[in-house]
Amino acid sequence: MSAYETLTVETQNRVGIITLNRPRALNALNSKLATELGRAATELDNTSNIGCLVLTGSDRAFAAGADIKEMADKSVYDMTANNPFAGLEEFGRVKKPIVAAIAGYALGGGCELAMMCDVLLAADNAVFGQPEINLGVIPGLGGTQRLSRAVGPALAADLVLTGRNMDAEEALRAGLVSRVVPAAQLRSEAMSVAGMIAAKSLPVIIAAKAALRAAQETTLAEGLRYEQRTFTSLFALDDQKEGMAAFRDKRAPDFQNR
Ligand code: HXC
């Protein structure tokens, strides 16, 4: 794996772990981090013996948002022609599932980055919010769109318009995260979830992620057609034959495409 300045990458069994590492800025997303995150995630996406990624930060901060100090003096031209967050678009194109393990602050771009992942796990000290309104801007990495879909338009408006924070329990009740665990167990919980995912057939996992994404991006009718086409196409895989034969034989499946 390549070396990075703003994050670390490890692999463990079939899981690739990216840890954001700008502790003095609470993992604020600057252009370097965005670029490196896109590269690191793409590298893991293209590594054949990796089935799932984990994205995490520190105990204090998953990420406290886009780097305000880097952004403050930029012009419209800078933000468009030289989009500092282009690397995050690359991150958003990763085909393998990504488990976000979120402790501490996940604010602004940090909350938006978490929502770009597939399974969101929170430590009990996690804090979510879209405080951009307090900076004279609005969310710009999906905070008005993905948050509305994740928690519904009423709570999304409450958060985006007031800029208030939400704790882990409220995030769980709202459906933004699927589990809350004690902070000390966050990493092991994330590794366990990622390990379960990585043990499945890789093409099937990738197909499942793409179909789940379709639910966010298309109408119900188009999403149902997408799902049905994908479901049918999976009958071309040895792993479908193996999965169903294993059920019939009352044994664990031994998927080949991993
Ligand atoms: C740059 C940041 C930062 C950020 C924290 N730091 N968040 N630097 N950008 N988003 C830096 C602080 O300046 C400080 O550095 C150090 O990290 C520690 O932060 P403190 O504020 O001293 O810590 P604390 O008092 O514990 O407060 C934590 C905090 C606060 C509540 C998270 O830092 C905060 O409000 N941060 C900004 C959160 C935010 O507004 N995020 C949205 C950004 S806009 P120094 O060197 O001063 O000690 C955004 C837009 C996304 O995300 C869309 C883009 C397209």
Automatic annotation (TrEMBL):
It comes from the Bacteria. One of its GO terms (molecular function) is enoyl-CoA hydratase activity. Its EC number is 4.2.1.17. GO terms for biological process: fatty acid beta-oxidation. Transmembrane segments: none annotated. Gene3D superfamilies: 2-enoyl-CoA Hydratase, Chain A, domain 1, Lyase 2-enoyl-coa Hydratase, Chain A, domain 2. Keywords: Fatty acid metabolism, Lipid metabolism, Lyase. It catalyses: a (3S)-3-hydroxyacyl-CoA = a (2E)-enoyl-CoA + H2O; a 4-saturated-(3S)-3-hydroxyacyl-CoA = a (3E)-enoyl-CoA + H2O. It is an enzyme of class 4 (lyase). Belongs to the enoyl-CoA hydratase/isomerase family. Could possibly oxidize fatty acids using specific components. This is Probable enoyl-CoA hydratase echA8.
